[in-house]
Specification:
By secondary structure, the chain is an alpha/beta fold. The protein has one domain (19-253): Rossmann fold (3-Layer(aba) Sandwich). It has helices at 47-53, 79-88, 92-95, 105-119, 135-138, 148-158, 163-166, 169-187, 214-218, 244-253; strands at residues 19-21, 32-36, 59-61, 98-103, 124-130, 200-206, 228-233. It has a seven-stranded mixed sheet with strand order 1-3-2-4-5-6-7, with helices on both faces. Helix 4 links the parallel strand 4 and strand 5. Helix 1 (47-53) packs parallel to helix 10 and helix 2 (79-88) packs across helix 4 (105-119). The longest helix is centred in the C-terminal third of the chain and has 19 residues, at 169-187. It is globular. The protein starts with 18 loop residues before the first strand and ends with a helix. It catalyses: a fatty acyl-CoA + H2O = a fatty acid + CoA + H(+).
């Protein structure tokens, strides 16, 4: 099992690098929504989305190591290590039941986080897997680049990052540091097709996303013992930026 080395007692307070957006007007739902960014992404990039989600209750955005206020934190060896570190760093049972939303690599991190949460008594209602191959499909995909120039080329091809920012050497170096950490973790990831969580799974895909196929999205259905559905939106890999309000409303509605 991947959970044997979990800290026995999780932290009692949320660290500053887990960004909380309080539910507006008291929210309307019990529990909390947790947002997991894409590879190379920082919590600040999901602030607008989290603010929309907060219409339904407290929302948290996790921050991965090697960026922003965790720049000095060591890179995780694997996705399992990353998910485990995110879980033991905060009292998630106290704010459960949890609704997990992960975009791109963040969906796979959220899946492993859900496995840990369920094994540790933190209820997970649903996992929203956005623009991401199912866990069992990851190992079959081409290995992601890790050299400086290839990483920047990959980011440019995916879209979602301002070209002027990519041309700035200081920004580019910070981005490469973060995304290399994440890509190395995902390159080491492997998950059997029969690994399931109890929580329901909703997969979301973009019709113009050339990175994630329909078949890879449909495989998410094999990873839940609950219900599964798949929805499509217009746009590319970062379609979420164009559908923030609609997707947040759907997450808040519960299905």
């Amino acid at each position: 099992m991947i959970f044997n080395n979990l800290t026995t007692v999780a932290k009692q307070e949320f660290p500053a690098w887990i960004k909380r957006v309080p539910g507006r007007d008291g929210g309307g739902r019990v529990g909390a929504t947790v947002v997991f960014p894409h590879a190379g992404g920082a919590a600040v990039g999901y602030r607008k989305f989290a603010t929309a989600l907060a219409a339904g209750g407290d929302t948290y955005i996790v921050q991965y190591p090697q960026r922003a206020d965790r720049l000095a934190d060591p890179a995780p060896g694997t996705v399992h290590d990353l998910a485990r570190g995110l879980f033991v760093s905060a009292p998630w049972r106290r704010v459960a039941p949890l609704r997990l939303f992960g975009h791109s690599m963040g969906a796979v991190v959220a899946f492993e986080f859900a496995r840990i949460a369920e094994s540790r008594g933190a209820a997970v209602e649903r996992l929203w897997a956005s623009a991401a191959p199912a866990p069992s499909a990851v190992a079959e995909m081409p290995e992601l680049p890790t050299s400086h120039d290839d990483l920047l080329l990959d980011v440019a091809e995916l879209g979602g990052t301002d070209a002027d920012l990519l041309a700035d050497p200081e920004f580019a170096e910070l981005l490469v540091t973060a995304i290399r950490s994440d890509y190395q973790a995902i390159n080491r990831y492997n998950c059997d097709a029969d690994v399931r969580i109890r929580a329901d799974i909703s997969a979301l895909g973009a019709r113009g996303d050339h990175r994630v196929s329909a078949a890879n999205l449909e495989l998410w259905g094999e990873h839940t013992a609950g219900s599964f559905d798949l929805s499509w939106y217009d746009g590319g890999h970062f379609y979420l930026d164009d559908h923030i309000d609609a997707i947040a409303a759907r997450v808040n509605a519960g299905g």
